[in-house]
Amino acid sequence: MQLLKQKVLDEGIVLSNQVLKVDSFLNHQMDPVLMKEMGKEFTRLFDGQNITRVLTIESSGIAPGIMTALELGVPLIFARKQKSLTLRHDIFVEKVFSFTKQETNEITVAKKFIHSGDRVLIIDDFLANGEAAFGLARIVEQAGAEVIGIGIVIEKAFQPGGRLLKEAGYRVESLVRIASLDDGAVSFADPLE
Ligand code: 5GP
How far, in whole angstroms, is CA 140 from its chain's centroid? Predict the structure, then answer.
């Protein structure tokens, strides 16, 4: 997605060779026009898949998630992150190791919002090792629903998440793929269109 690549080049801050900061348009301040375009692009990529729910994780997945859900005309559900909790019978719970915080969180979704027969599109802001996406996929599967695909705003293709998710049989569509953050610079996996 050309608009997003340009935004990453103009405003992305390379914090290390592993971490990109995009707090001016995605992770703190949010660019609503860009979010709307992301929603349209995910909808185009997953066209014809009869998606019934979009699932993301708080907080940075919510904006691209809601725009996609709006385009698709379906509800958005965001998984909540909690440090630890006593198991309750009305929620799905999965453990997810956080790449940015380097700690394990439990993510939860109320059972009443995903059902068997649902066709779920998972959306997240970044893909690194795939922990968040796998956790969300496990929740969909606990519900007896189907993961139709995983839509990622920024995939760091030099980390293994994308490959692991594809090997596990999931369809992964990323709006931009970053090949490297070495030497303080962003290089894209696919050349600029
Ligand atoms: P994963 O679960 O795939 O290992 O990491 C993805 C999650 O970690 C995303 O939900 C995102 O919040 C966070 N994350 C991973 N890498 C980055 C990064 O380079 N920059 C930012 N801002 N967040 C990241």
Answer: 14
Q: Map out the domains of the chain with their CATH numbers.
A: 2-188 (3.40.50.2020)
CA of 126 to the centre of ligand 1 (A): 5
* Interval between CA 60 and ligand 1 midpoint (Å): 10
Q: Using an 8 Å Cβ cutoff, are 173 and 64 in contact? A: no
- Nearest C-alpha to atom 5 of ligand 1 is from which residue? 128
pTM metric for this prediction: 0.97
- The full DSSP string for 13-63 is EE-SSS-EE-TTTTSSS--HHHHHHHHHHHHHHTTTS---EEEEETTTTHH
Tell me what ipTM this predicted complex has: 0.99
User: Each residue of 39-76: pLDDT tens digit?
Assistant: 999 999 999 999 999 999 999 999 999 999 999 999 99
Is the distance from the beta carbon of residue 132 to the nearest atom of ligand 1 less than 6 Å? yes
